[in-house]
Amino acid sequence: MWCDRKAPEWEGYGIYQPTLRFDEGLWNELLDEMPRVGVNMVVIDLGDGVQYRSHPEIAVQGAWSTTRLKEELKRLRERGLEPVPKLNFSTAHDAWMGEYSRCVSTPRYYAVCRDLIEEVIDLFEQPRFFHLGMDEETWEHQRHYAYAVVRQHELWWEDFRFLVNQVGRHGVRAWIWSDYYWHHPEAFLQNMPRSVLQSNWYYGDGFDPQDVAVRTYIELAQHGFEQIPTGSNWSNDVNFERTVQFCTQNVPPERLLGFLQTTWKPTLTECRQKHLNALQQVTRAKHRE
Question: Taking all residues of the chain, what is their mean pLDDT, rounded to a whole number?
Answer without folding.
Answer: 97
